Task: structure prediction
Amino acid sequence: MHIKKIGQGKDLVLIHGWGMHSGIWEPIIDKFSNEYTLHLVDIPGMGKSHVIEPYDLNHVVEVISESLPTSFDILGWSLGGLITLKMSLMYPEKIHRMVLVGGTPCFINQIDWSHGVDIRDFNDFANKLFKNYKSTMMNFYTLQLMHSKNSKLLIKKLKQIDEVENPPDVKSLQLGLDILLKNDLRDDIDKIHHQTLLITGGMDRLTPKSASMWLESHMKKGQLKVIEGASHIPFLSHPDEFFRHLDQFLLAA
Result:
């Protein structure tokens, strides 16, 4: 389990999304390492972390938690947000406050849930991933930054961040997709008592803002901030507004 520590101060854990690694947090490292000890997690099977067995949400959370301090604030993006939600249920005593970026309790649309991704689109993406990894990942980056200003430059930057580490193998990517496919935490959300900041892009198509709106309405201490015009990676596409919301939340005692 690879977790890099940078900075000084209170502990802040950062968990990235599917297909990426902890290098995605470069903007947060630059801004927060003087105020926080940042714990940059590489999800098992991605970045410098090896695949684990069994590879399911509970075990992923267990393995990550074993390497974290006894108490911390935590920020999770996309898949990292799902891991953060599960961690808050499994180890509530460890977490002080949570930030979910592009968060959702359920990635896949269900009969009674329309705030996710259609299962046909999900399966089509998985099939394309096996056939042409590079092309499929490039399309994935484009989707995440759609409608952003300077989207071409941002996509190029995201690709450069990704290439810092060796790409995860297809097996690891598929295991991560299986977690997105199989987990639905809606029934447990009302058990979460942590102060939680929900940040979402108004144009996000992967985890629509309606999912964050649902979370806010079902969490006892949730507050939602929508960044209009942003898609799935607001900390890259709209850093000023993103950091303003994050600052206000983390600095509030």
Summary: Strands lie at 3-7, 10-15, 36-41, 72-77, 95-101, 195-201, 222-227. DSSP finds ten helices and seven strands in the chain.
